[in-house]
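To close the chapter, one final illustration. This time we ask the reader to focus less on the individual chains and more on the assembly as a whole: which components sit near each other, and how the overall shape emerges from the parts.
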Amino acid sequence: MSELRSEQSPAGEAHGPQETEQTETLHIEKWEGIWIRIALGMTAVFILAITVAALSFGISVPGVTARISPAALNDPENPFATPGLRELAPGKYEVYMVAQTWNFLPDRLEVPVGAEVTFYVTARDVVHGIKIAGTNVNMMALPGQVSTLKATFTKPGVYNYICHEYCGYVAGAPIGHHTMYGQLVVAEAPETAQALTE
Amino acid sequence: MSVQTFTGSVAPARPVSPPLTAQHLHLADRVAGWNIAVGVLALSIGALFGVFQGLEHAKVLDIYPWLQPVIKTYYQGLTLHGALNAVVWTTFFICGFFTFAFVRSLNRPYLYPKLNVIAFVVMLVGLLTAAVPMLMNNATVLYTFYPPMLADWAFYAGLTLLVIGSWIVGYSMYFTYYAWRKENPDRRAPFIALAATITMVLWQIATLGVAGEILFQLLPNALAPVLGFPAPGLDPLLNRTLFWWFGHPLVYFWLLPAYISWYAMLPAQTHGKMFSEPLARLVFWLFLLFSTPVGFHHQYADPGIPEIWKYIHMIFTFGVGFPSLLTAFTVVASLEIGARARGGKGYLAWIGRLNWGDPSYAAQNLAMILFIFGGIGGMINASYNVNLAVHNTTWVPGHFHLTVGSASTLTFFGILYWMVPRLTGHKLFTPLLARVQAWTWFFGMLLFSNAYHTLGLLFSVPRRTALGSAPYYDSQWNPQMIESVLGIALLTVSATLFFAIMLFTLVVPRKLDKPVDMPVAQPLDPKPAPQWLDTWWPWLNGAIALVLLSYGPMLYQLIRDAEFWSRGIRVW
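The assembled structure is written out below.
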């Protein structure tokens, strides 16, 4: 740890052996020094690995998309007024989704295998969350903000998307935070999707 | 200090530290004891709700219909569990422990001893004020209270008082530290006193964020209907950002008191010495530097924050992991010195010669072992994109029951196993029960946290959810749910033992054979630490600069562009 061993202060040397004991040098024992290097190395490797994953493989976290007033969600020109799946190009989809107490709009989606889906999610009332099981789509849904992530679905099956931020529950009510979820069906072909959920 | 003075002496008058008398200690110890009593009582209620939650998740028992007259829902219980355990128990214990330890370490009476009493009263009034709406189901917002969900105003007012009271504990320490420094300009501050003061300064910086959220957003909105003025509205993202400015350094406020015990007390409980006292100081200064500019790592999944800021906070988060890696080496080396002094041999066989028979020692060493897993999990959580795999799943409670629930809490139990005998003058009731308590906590948490980590990672099971009532409950979860229930059973035994030990130590007057006092480990190398590890300004200014750099630009934008579109809602 060379950076920790600063030079002895000349003032200290001028005061005899008793005083030079109190130097500004931090004494590091041999094995401790080795461990410090290992710890620094590990930290650097972790940061590097995450950086590579983010830049090279595009595994990213939600960033800045757009803002929208919760009061404007039903304005006709607003895509959140008609939440749901839209096909942009063959195999490419986008979903506009509203999280509200206590359901997702829409709470059911069907896409074919290989579909690349971009999710736009906002919240109408309080903070919600959404994680599509088995994928990296994991976002908070905040009133006033639009959260975006993209996922490609390569395996057929039923994927739950569950609200993972506490959003309320009234004692005795049939629905609440713990009943708030939806299902995304990935089918070999769109028409077999119905069969899979039964 | 016996300084012979003669008339006509030219030596400049330097103030001399007044001696620390039994009378001074008496008041400090009384206050410490009150703090600890409140903390332990809060934990006893909070822990009980933890058991109810775990049983609900696994569909073993949904007790909430029976609790209806008192506790309305799972989520009201969850609010109590989080608030009482993570906020009340920790804060009261830490304030009591510091009040007790700081004055002994510095060996100088408090400059204003009554400040500690005032601090305790303010904290207690705050707790009672916040407890009323929590118990009346008027603040079922969990201990993160994310707006626009809005609780009764008394909840926020009570939290504010609780935090202000804990600040006063810090002020009492700062004043005394400053007086001691003027009296002893050439001496190094004793390690425990310095480390406790750093922890309180860190807490002061951390709580500014949540203070801003509560005073400028939550309280005005909660008070609006009461006082009849129009609600100013809320910006949920701005509020979350202010909350997490506080939310992560909060965990270092929980952890550093345990580190103080591991570094400077525990070695003395197993005949060891502090392996590298100057490095321990460096570790605490690094925590002061890096604990706050990391909050966005709790907001990786949030919209509205540019990825680059999340990335920058990720780097600082690994920066704050580094002092914990140093701790792993230095503390183990300190304990190994002790084990070898006790006749330990070999590369690993010395571990058996540690002072396992002492429950205070055993509890804290077991807490350290659990923290190894907690620390590794923490690095995974910190890892930016990897975090998406586990964010807000049961992985997260799995993680923090190893950290605050074990590294801190089990260490605090261990500390109480010498501290309560010291405060009461009574023998611990009994060392055997206390050893059983420590080991059952260890295995209970191991099972519980392993199960919850796995459920979150494999099945994306959401956290803070009444899983037993969820329509998406999946029988695939059963193996882990069974594992978690086994863990909860052990933890129930362990927690019951802990409260019984505390109660019976207090009420059964078996006088101590010989006096017990705070263990203080001596440094292996008696050379004092270099001056720069005993100097506040570079570290404190560095910490403030890092907070400004890492939060300034983003907070400026969030405040400038704030849209107070949301109104407070009651959704419970």
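Chain B touches chain A through 80 residues (CB under 8 Å). Residues 1-6 of chain B have pLDDT under 50 and may be disordered. With these observations in hand, you are ready for the problems at the end of the chapter.
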